Amino acid sequence: MDPANLTLFAVAALAIAVSPGPGIFYVAARTLAGGRREGLASSFGTGLGGLVHVAAGAIGVSALVLASAEAFALLKIAGAAYLVWLGIKTMREARIDIDMRAEPTGARRAFREGIVVEALNPKTAAFFLAFLPQFVDPAAGPVWLQFLLLGLVSVILNTAADVVVVVVASRARSMAVARPSLLRRLRQGAGLAISSLGVALLFTRRPVSL
Q1: DSSP summary character for residue 138
Q2: How far, in Å, CA of 47 to CA of 183, rounded?
Q3: Residue 172 lies in a domain
Q4: Taking burial as the number of CB atoms within 10 A of a residue's CB, which of 3, 63, 91, 119 is the most buried?
Q5: Is 159 a domain residue?
Q6: Is 191 within 8 Å of 54 (Cβ atoms)?
Q7: Residue 133 gets which letter from DSSP?
């Protein structure tokens, strides 16, 4: 692949990665709700979920889903419902008093949920199918391999940006440890934010063309 083209892609992908979006807000909310471990687990989970779309796009599955209004709607509803459920669950758990001196738990669950959230997000599929092909050069080798490579770089950059957000959000959470009532409100707000992302996803329109 052309080095100049790769450089342009890296710059564009980095700009997109650091731009505030649903993924960043999601991992920030999970961090405020469950601590750094759960935030990092969510970041890596959404990263793996993004790779699902990259792999699917490479073999054309995502294109088929986006070409079908029914398939897109089902994926959108499933993803939105899952986010709303996670948000409500987080708000309910915020009412339970926990020992903040103990190490946060639930990282495995946060990792699994991160995978599901991102894998069921049709906007991620639309993004990869609209963004990556612009930097694919058929003369440079197998198109599917270039798609996978560019997708992997994009996911790594997105995950790195999420990790930075987790670190910042975890510091904000640690400052609230001495004030249980404030922490409870932060966790409730985080749950509301996650549910709101689900509602926003529900109104996502299927791309007319890619």
Answers
A1: G
A2: 27
A3: yes
A4: 119
A5: yes
A6: no
A7: G
Count of alpha carbons within 13 angstroms of residue 158, beta-carbon side: 30
Domain range enclosing 132: 3-8+21-202
Place of tokens 């890596």: 44
pLDDT category, 40, cuts 50, 70, 90? very high
**Best-predicted range by mean pLDDT among 32-46, 52-66, 127-141?**
32-46
User: What is residue 107's three-state secondary structure?
Assistant: helix
- Name the packing angle between helices 69-93 and 107-119 (round to 10°): 150
Establish if 15 belongs to a structural domain. no
CA-to-CA separations, 25 to 21, 161, 163, 201, in angstroms, rounded = 6, 11, 12, 13
HEC letters along 38-104: HHHHHHHHHHHHHHHHHHHHHHCHHHHHHHCHHHHHHHHHHHHHHHHHHHHHHHHHCCCCCCCCCCC
Task: Find all residues with CB under 8 Å of 3, minimum gap 6, and list them.
Answer: none
pLDDT at 96: 54
CA distances from 38 to 34, 85, 91, 166 (A): 6, 17, 16, 9
Question: DSSP label at 35?
Answer: -
Q: How many structural domains is the chain composed of? A: 1
CA gap 30, 41 in Å, rounded: 9
What was the pLDDT predicted at 166? 93
